Here is the input.
Amino acid sequence: MTERRFNEEEVAAIFERAAEAQHVTQSPLASREGMTLTQLQEIGREVGIPPEQLAEAAKSIQLAPRPTSRTFLGLPIGVGLAVDLDRKLSNDEWERFVVDLRETFDARGKVSSEGSFRQWTNGNLQALLEPTATGHRIRIRTTKGDARGLMTGGIAMVGFAAAAAIGKAVLGDGNDPGMLSSLATLATMGAVMFGAGGFRLPGWARLRGRQMEEVTARVAAIAGSEPTDDHSGKR
Here is the structure.
């Protein structure tokens, strides 16, 4: 009789129950510090999951891309993505990665290096290659540089128009048609400026996030194969 195979939901349920049992027997300090792979494998043995499967799952979690974002008034003005590679990129692989960046973002950019650190930059768009204990980390990030200025300027114009209108009303001079028309125009211009800065942000953030996911997936696939050059990461 063949041994039963557990699907993803069953494996998750097994580990949930195992973690609950472990939480009861461990001290709060151990719970706050988390659990090592060795501890997970010990639990896995108790519920019949091979250590190799847990090691592979832990590796996939460790190497999974980690997105980041920056917001202004609830709108995304910056996006980023970091992914750890389980080995160092060679010189040839780094150069191929730069070519991919240029094609993906349609930008030539500039390449620079300092010691074991490398980067490709094009304005606010940055791709960094950083050393880790087991290989390299790729970190890509960018910001929508003009969005914050447009939105802040728009808010300031609307606020000034509103404050001026209130001030005129308090002074009993709120019936001046010319002044009211000017303030309304100023407020409208401010709203348009705010919209120009904020309207495009969600679509821009989705596009940049998708591009970052695609380019990091390709470099992760390169790192998962045999190296094509030395592993020094520098010439």
Q: What stands out?
A: Residues 65-235 form one domain.
